Structure formats: structure tokens, C-alpha cells
Amino acid sequence: MGKTDTILPTPPDDHATHLAALHKAYSSGDIIAILQATNYSQQQDIALPPWAINPLEETLLGVVTLKRGVKGRGNSAFGDLRKALIRTVRASAYSYVRAWQKNPHRYRDLPTQTFGSWYSDELFWQVNRKSIDAARLASTSLHGTEFVANASTLRRAAYGFPAPIRWGRKEAEERLGLRGPSGIFGPPPGQPPAHVQSLLSKRSRKS
Fold first, then answer.
1. Is the pTM here over 0.90, yes or no?
2. What is the pLDDT of residue 205?
3. By residue range, what is the domain housing residue 185?
4. In terms of Cα–Cα distance, which of 59, 138, 144, 50 is closest to 100?
5. How far apart (Å, rounded) are the C-alpha atoms in residues 92 and 102?
6. Within a domain: residue 55?
7. How confident is the model over 144-150, as a mean pLDDT?
8. Residue 162 belongs to a domain
9. How far is CA 80 from CA 14, 77, 108, 164, in A?
């Protein structure tokens, strides 16, 4: 893994490789990857690849023609996309907890509801290191949201789902309302408590 922050300081230089990685993520079910590709292409002043253009065009056509969604996958042009977003958020929650388990410096990606437990329990990170713990914590963190799911459903959502590509992820999630004051991911305002800072000081930023 690279730097601690979700957003990396500079965009990747290799356009083809980066867009190919986003394409692979999108093809594996990560709907947010298409927003990352759009933002990246705009910032780098390069053409948006067909794999990103085509679903956007299809969605727009579905909206303006009032076309219904595929049977069993929603009843509007947004049905497929909404279900893809639900899976993406669930899988991302699991992936973010797993990344934090391996390297606590990745805490800025944790589901927001996880921080209360971590900030109040000095041994929280140490005793929640297994994949089954990640599924449980991710599931708990989504309670009260439209993305709520039990631990087994979270693990199924994450199966075959790539780790979120970090450059531009934070901004894409903010645009979707997944980060921020009422969002799902990211730490509360202010500095972490002393025991968390102590843990971070003893751990390498690289895993």
C-alpha cells in the first residue's frame, strides 16, 4: 500500500495503466470507479474511454426515454446502477476495515461508526484483526443506512470485489454523499485520542 491518505497527492502518470485498473474495478462491480475515471480524464484532459462513456450514455437515454430497467433489476433506468452502488458501498466498507486491520494508518477510510468503538477502547485494533471481525465491524457500521446488511452478506458482496483504487476515491465518495458530516466513511473531526496516536506512532505507514 502507498500513502496513508485515501486521496494520493498527485494523479498517476501512466494514463493507460490507471484507466485499465479502473476498468477492471468497474467490470468487477465497483460502480464508483466510473466516477473516478470521469474525474481523472477531466483533470488530465484526456478522452474518457468507451467503457466509461457507454454506460453513462445508456443511463441518459434511459432517463430521457423513460425506459424501464431490466426485469428483476429495478424498475427504472437507475435500477441497475443503484443496486451496483449498494454492493459497492458494502464491499468497500469491508475492504476499508480489512486495510485498517493490516495497517492502522489507513484509518481515514474506516466506516464512521467504527470510530466510537476504536476511540474508546485501547485494545480495539489489537483484538479485531480477522476477516470475520472485518465483516462484523463493516456490518455494524452500516446499521441505520440504506446499505445495511449482515456480516455474511457483506462478505458475499466483497467476494471478487477489488480493493478500491485510492486516487480520486475520496472525492467520488464525497460527491455521492458517502463522506462528510452525514456520510458513511471517514473519521470524525479532530485528532484521534492519545492511545490511537500512540499505536500509529509505533506502526509503519507502509504495510
1. no
2. 81
3. 15-202
4. 138
5. 15
6. yes
7. 96
8. yes
9. 31, 7, 29, 20
CA pair distance 38, 19, nearest whole angstrom? 10
Q: List helix spans (H) across the chain.
A: 15-27, 32-44, 50-64, 79-102, 115-120, 124-127, 131-141, 151-158, 169-175, 194-202
Q: Is 64 exposed, middle or buried (0-12, 13-18, 19+ CB in 10 A)?
A: exposed
The closest of 164, 189, 191, 158 to 176, measured between CA atoms, is 164
Spatial distance between the Cα atoms of 139 and 184, rounded to a whole number of angstroms: 12
**9: in domain:** no
Q: What mean pLDDT is predicted for residues 9-18?
A: 80
Whether residue 7 is contained in a domain is answered as no
Q: What mean pLDDT is predicted for residues 92-114?
A: 96
Per-residue pLDDT at 87 exceeds 70: yes
Question: In 3D, which of 94, 98, 102 has the Cα closest to residue 157?
Answer: 94
From residue 114, give the alpha-carbon distance in Å to each of 50, 51, 154.
38, 35, 15
Which residues, 6 or more positions from 110, have their beta carbon under 8 angstroms from its beta carbon?
A: 96, 97, 100, 118, 141, 185, 186, 187
Calpha distance 5→153 (Å, rounded): 28
Angle (nearest 5°) at CA 193 between 190 and 196: 115
Cell numbers standing for residue 42: 477531466
- 3-class SS of residue 199: helix
Number of domains comprising the chain: 1
d(CA 207, CA 199): 14
